[in-house]
Please model this.
Amino acid sequence: MSIISGLLVETLSTTQFYNNRLLVYSINLWNNRGMSESLDIGREVKDGLYEQFARIGKAVANAKRIELLELLCQGERSVEVLADAAAMGMTNTSAHLRVLREARLVDTRKEGTRVFYRLADDEVCTFFLSLRDLASRRFAEVEQVVRYYFEARDNLDPVGRAELMERADDGDVILLDVRPGEEYDAGHIPGALSVPLGELEARLSSLPKDAEIVAYCRGPYCVLAPQALELLHKHGFRARRLEDGLPEWRQAGLPVAVGSESGG
Model:
């Protein structure tokens, strides 16, 4: 066996991909490099490559797994927190996370008996955002949901990132992060106050009535900010929502604060 063949076999054993045709035919390519077989081997190599690409597609071919990726775009989470946020049982959540991990989209760490999940790297969040945006451009149903649920709750147009930064510099806007506290601690827009949606009503008296409030949450299709707007409008506040959320803010290369020092 050649050195390269040995390395491939070792990789095959280490990653436990015993039926991975790409690696098997890579070994054959090195051991049997006859010209008459080159076309067949090339076809098998391409098939093997596309099989690997398809693993990502299979991993995200489930609505709940896509939701889990969105949640993990906010930061590392325990299985318990993810199950609660995605309205799933622990068993189902663990099963979906296992599929995402096998596709190398998420990683884990243990803290005592608890297991925490995080995205494998920032490119996974970029992939999620691209997938979401592609679907929104291709399917009219997405636009219908946006009009029915999100735009119906906006008294004014959503605030863009550029407008928010300009107004924040002028000090005439109050920025509320209405996500759960652990998501705020993992990363938030600098200067934002942490006011989780479930605490908002109890904290209304601490908000100034003479300033416009901008609420944001996990992204353009997160329902927390629109629900916050409904409550704020009901109590006479001038309020708008940020057009997107923290993942888009981070993807734009804008600064992100970590921890609870900025409020909450």
Summary: The chain has 13 helices and seven strands. The CA atoms of residues 176 and 215 lie 5 Å apart.
